[in-house]
Amino acid sequence: MICDIVDADDDGDNWDDVDDMFPYDSSRVGRF
């Protein structure tokens, strides 16, 4: 398990930098 990836922006997913760079929830696009 990759422990380096954390939900730093606390939006329920395991990505923080992607959500911070874009005004939409880009971390969930194509990840359904």
Tell me what you see in this structure:
The protein has one helix spanning 17-21. With 32 residues, the chain is an all-alpha fold. The mean pLDDT is 55. The protein has one domain (1-32). It contains one helix and no strands. The N and C termini lie far apart (20 Å). The longest helix is centred in the middle third of the chain and has 5 residues, at 17-21.
Task: Give structural attributes.
single chain; 32 residues; mainly alpha; 16% helix
Question: How many strands, what sense, and barrel or not for the largest sheet?
Answer: none
Low-pLDDT runs: none
Distance between the termini: 20 Å
Number of domains: 1
Instruction: Provide the succession of SSEs.
Output: H
